[in-house]
Amino acid sequence: MIDYKSTLKIAINSLKINKMRSALTSLGIIIGVSAVIIMLAVGAGANKQVQANMESMGSNLLTVRSATAKTGGVSMGMGSKPTLSVKDAQAIKKMARGVDAVAPVMNSTKQVMYGNQNWSTSVYGITTPYLYVKNYEIELGRPFTRDDDNNAAKVAIIGSTVERELFGDVNPIDKTIRIGNAPFKVIGTLKTKGTAGPMDQDDLLFIPLSTAQRKVFGTDFPGSVNQIVVKANTLEDTD
Q1: Most exposed of 51, 123, 159, 210 (fewest Cβ within 10 Å)?
Q2: Do residues 186 and 171 lie in contact, with contact meaning Cβ atoms separated by under 8 Å?
Q3: How does DSSP classify residue 213?
């Protein structure tokens, strides 16, 4: 049978005899354990941040892009040739299994102006489901209505980066901005989402899809869009 009291007494005496060695050994153990705990915490924090960034972009997403146009033998990139339409988005929603929501989109970079301020940003022609699909929320004002889209209204919802660059501390609601040469009334602002990798998710501006098609981008293919964002019901459904 082990005599725990005697063993403990011997161990304490040994520590007293070799105080410096004991102190250094204890310090090494403390530093080693602390380092492991810190690295695990940093790793868990980084993983959580990556997951949050991914979720802020929307979950269970697939993006369908239109074809590539070529000019003088040079490829202009995916989405440059209008081969998709709103009807394609409606067909995906109706016929594909496991689909939660579908959002047809037209987008391009445009110069936006307010007073003597100007900013180059991504302008998106969207329908209301896009906000849900991409996890955007309204901070001030209102989202687009069915009438806005049916009438190709010149109204806009702006991201917080655009709001800061154009308006500073001024409330942008009901103010008139210009996208190119066309005037638009700001009806809403978006809650800040931050960056996802190199992309600033707040450096953008939304207008109704019909307005983008008829009055901003223009196309020889009526009803065309350059991408369709599809949200699956579950991660497994994305297959």
Answers
A1: 51
A2: no
A3: I
